[in-house]
Amino acid sequence: MINKIRISLIQFKYGIINLYNWFRVIWNDRDWDFYYVYNVLERKLKLMIDSGIYNQERDKHLKIAHKLLTRIKCSYYELEPLEVINYSLNCNELTCIVVNDMNEEGRKEYFKKYRRTIDKMRKEDPTREDDILMTLTSVEIQNKARRLFFKILNEKLEWWWD
Questions:
Q1: What angle do CA 129, 111, 113 make, to 5 degrees?
Q2: Which helix (DSSP H) or strand (DSSP E) does residue 90 occupy?
Q3: Where does residue 121 rank: exposed (0-12), middle (13-18), buried (19+ CB within 10 A)?
């Protein structure tokens, strides 16, 4: 009898801790966007990493998945070219023209970093301008990150608890 009460109190304590850990995520959850599903997944991965109960190999995969998810959530790879391409509007009374001023050093670095994907995009259409090429590449890299994240979840999710 005393053992059952003790177990119930321990479970109650963990329930209160879970309410505290998840309150903000649940409070801010909305049903209309995938972003909120990512918030739940990100919180779960973060709590698992912070628990410290996983061995080095499992912890490594948790951290990789968490980092990927963090980058996916904020569209890191899709926004990366914006650091290199400075878009501005050149307007007169009748029209506005989008002007892109590309940072040459940043462009070279970006092209070197994603050479394989850019080469693939060039094969599809060799006439593409650099800014279009970078935009298409950024979308492709973002999609690769998303696929890799879900591949890690698919392959490692149950393994993390074995």
A1: 155
A2: strand 85-91
A3: buried
User: pLDDT digits over 44-92, tens only?
Assistant: 999 988 887 777 878 888 999 999 999 999 888 988 887 777 655 556 6
* SS3 at position 86: strand
Question: Amino acid letter at 107?
Answer: R
Residue ranges of domains in the chain: 1-30, 31-162
CB atoms near residue 70 (< 10 Å)? 14
Q: Considering only CA atoms, which of 141, 34, 21, 18 is closest in space to residue 79?
A: 141
Side chain identity at 43, as an amino acid letter?
Answer: R
CB atoms within 10 A of CB 48: 19
Q: Are 89 and 96 in contact (CB under 8 A)?
A: yes
The token duo for 16 is: 């209160």
